[in-house]
């Protein structure tokens, strides 16, 4: 029994939950276990993994390993008990183990031999900023953190330092403090492949004089050496694959134009990427300022030629409007950047052109300039139109960032997720996928919310309510195609640290390939705002059928030690 003092007047007593296994767990155990022995042998457990959990790759050795780990943790012995297998409590322990029974795989399983343009790539915006976009410090620490979390595209804004003899990284024309370019490069080199072996792309927003461009080229080559990917031709006709580019660093920026020597170098020949969108919906950014053809570029020194030679993914757009910018050239693959606002305009009038463009070329989307607090936008429209680099501010938190985390839990968290086939194909009539077409239901997901535990271990007893246990409810929703988006909610379970819901929800999906399952838990508060109790976001195509332990994370995306839900998943 638990005691809570209410209003200092009397003691209110609450029964503590005993966490009994749900009836579905008992039924699954009885279906596969030896009834007489009341135990599930390794062979029977293997059948459960293959048939009930739908894990066709599970081997007998996998089943043996899991059984041994459960018995070691629960009984601290293996040899004597392995032959008897798991009892009901052991089986329940396994189902509720976040490491032994996760809802998605942690292995890379997609084909990594397609061109880079065929993948969504985990992309950060102004990666060097520690906080807001106007006055926070620039540092290599957020770059290190981003890379360690699996981010594969790092953005650096390059400016001359105060003496104009070296290169700083900062958000230009703001109060942000600088960090040295070479320090950022060194940190990228040291942390690039801790989370993933697949290539790291550095997008440079370059506000440098030719002399400093030459110095930047020297810094990049000296830092990365053989790790640096040099394209064989000035323009690639097709991007290489992530597999070919394992452990390589790729540079992407606008090729340097001819610059006039001037004392007033800062910002004279370029404009900030986040400043303006022209009336046609294409940004007139530094990185994508107008280019027509190679004759526009006259490298004035060998150093600038070296800088240009480093660029594997050329940024820029042709002269003219959006229609011109989205033209697919036969001889060169390139990168175009649009702000979230410009993307909205582009998809409204040229949605299928955007998809056709992204089949061969890179499209990068970045937050509008008014997001000075480092907030983010909904990434779903960008993904639905094939944009590979959906650049996010990684400094903050919120629903949009949780969707980004969810998407890139796919494919073992390697930072590259294969785009759905429908975004990569052209039909016999030369048409691409129409994102505005009305589509039939392709797959139905059923989610059964059994129960949750762990809050009493990770939170103070007064965190949710001062005088009583929490009143938990769960919100389970789909983020994805507009027709698929929906949120459903369980009943409130009053005054318990271990809520048992046993509620099932059904989600018809027209584009299951891009659906994300949003999970949130709150404690109801009658007189104030409901208190947040954890969240997760799972990529629906990666969710395993069967019953699984789903860990919950705090608002910043850090996993709680003990808080988890037991959920059942069924696809039809």
From TrEMBL:
Reactions catalysed according to its record: a 1,2-diacyl-sn-glycero-3-phospho-(1D-myo-inositol-4,5-bisphosphate) + H2O = 1D-myo-inositol 1,4,5-trisphosphate + a 1,2-diacyl-sn-glycerol + H(+)
Q: Which GO terms describe its molecular function?
A: phosphatidylinositol-4,5-bisphosphate phospholipase C activity
What ranges does the record list as Acidic residues composition bias? 271-297
Q: Where is the C2 domain?
A: 428-554
GO terms under biological process: lipid catabolic process; phosphatidylinositol-mediated signaling; release of sequestered calcium ion into cytosol; response to stress
Q: Which cofactor(s) are needed, names only? A: Ca(2+)
Q: Where primarily located?
A: membrane
Q: Which InterPro entries match?
A: C2_dom (IPR000008), C2_domain_sf (IPR035892), EF-hand-dom_pair (IPR011992), PI-PLC_fam (IPR001192), PLC-like_Pdiesterase_TIM-brl (IPR017946), PLipase_C_PInositol-sp_X_dom (IPR000909), PLipase_C_Pinositol-sp_Y (IPR001711)
Keywords (alphabetical) are: Cell membrane, Hydrolase, Lipid degradation, Lipid metabolism, Membrane, Transducer
Q: Name one GO cellular component term.
A: plasma membrane
The record's Gene3D superfamilies line, in alphabetical order, gives: C2 domain (2.60.40.150), EF-hand (1.10.238.10), Phosphatidylinositol (PI) phosphodiesterase (3.20.20.190)
Q: What is its EC number?
A: 3.1.4.11
Name this polypeptide is given: Phosphoinositide phospholipase C
């Amino acid at each position: 029994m638990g005691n809570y003092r209410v209003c200092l007047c009397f003691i209110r007593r609450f029964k503590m939950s005993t966490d009994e296994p749900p009836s579905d767990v008992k039924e699954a155990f009885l279906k596969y276990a030896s009834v007489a022995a009341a135990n599930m042998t390794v062979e029977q457990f293997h059948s459960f993994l293959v048939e009930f959990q739908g894990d066709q790759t599970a081997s007998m050795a996998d089943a043996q390993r899991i059984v041994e780990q459960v018995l070691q943790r629960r009984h601290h012995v293996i040899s004597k008990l392995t032959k008897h297998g798991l009892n009901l409590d052991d089986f329940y322990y396994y189902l509720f183990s976040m490491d032994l029974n996760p809802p998605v795989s942690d292995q890379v399983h997609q084909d990594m031999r397609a061109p880079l343009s065929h993948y969504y790539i985990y992309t950060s915006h102004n990666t060097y900023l520690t906080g807001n976009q106007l006055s926070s410090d620039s540092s290599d620490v957020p770059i290190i953190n981003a890379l360690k979390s699996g981010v594969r595209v790092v953005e650096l804004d390059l400016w001359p330092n105060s003496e104009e003899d070296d290169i700083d990284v900062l958000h230009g024309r703001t109060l942000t403090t600088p960090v040295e370019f070479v320090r950022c490069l060194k940190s990228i080199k040291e942390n690039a492949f801790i989370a993933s072996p697949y290539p790291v792309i550095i997008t440079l927003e370059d506000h440098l004089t030719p002399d400093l461009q030459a110095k930047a080229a020297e810094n990049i080559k000296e830092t990365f050496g053989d790790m640096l990917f040099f394209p064989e031709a000035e323009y690639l006709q097709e991007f290489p694959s992530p597999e070919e580019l394992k452990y390589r660093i790729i540079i992407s920026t606008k090729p340097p134009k001819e610059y006039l020597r001037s004392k007033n170098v800062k910002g004279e020949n370029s404009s900030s990427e986040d400043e303006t969108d022209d009336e046609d919906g294409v940004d007139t950014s530094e990185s994508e300022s107008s280019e027509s053809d190679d004759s526009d570029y006259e490298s004035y020194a060998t150093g600038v030629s070296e800088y240009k030679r480093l660029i594997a993914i050329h940024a820029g757009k042709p002269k003219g409007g959006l229609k011109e910018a989205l033209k697919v050239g036969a001889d060169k693959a390139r990168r175009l950047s649009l702000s979230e606002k410009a993307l909205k305009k582009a998809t409204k009038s040229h949605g299928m052109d955007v998809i056709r463009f992204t089949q061969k070329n890179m499209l990068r989307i970045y937050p509008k300039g008014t997001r000075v607090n480092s907030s983010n936008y909904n990434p779903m429209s960008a993904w639905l139109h094939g944009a590979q680099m959906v650049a996010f501010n990684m400094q903050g938190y919120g629903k949009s960032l949780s969707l980004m985390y969810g998407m890139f839990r796919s494919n073992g968290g390697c930072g590259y997720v294969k785009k759905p086939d429908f975004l990569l194909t052209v039909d016999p009539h030369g048409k691409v996928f129409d994102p505005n077409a009305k589509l039939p239901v392709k797959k139905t997901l059923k989610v059964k919310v059994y129960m949750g535990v762990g809050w009493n271990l990770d939170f103070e007893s007064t965190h949710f309510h001062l005088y009583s246990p929490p009143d938990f409810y769960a919100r389970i929703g789909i983020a994805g195609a507009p027709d698929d988006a929906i949120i459903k909610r369980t009943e409130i379970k009053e005054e318990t640290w271990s809520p048992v819901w046993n509620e099932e929800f059904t989600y018809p999906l027209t584009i299951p390939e891009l659906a994300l399952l949003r999970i949130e838990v709150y404690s109801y508060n009658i007189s104030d705002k409901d208190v947040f109790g954890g969240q997760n976001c799972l990529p629906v195509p990666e969710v395993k059928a069967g019953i699984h332990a789903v860990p919950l994370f705090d608002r910043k995306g850090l996993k709680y030690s003990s808080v988890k839900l037991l959920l059942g998943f069924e696809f039809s």
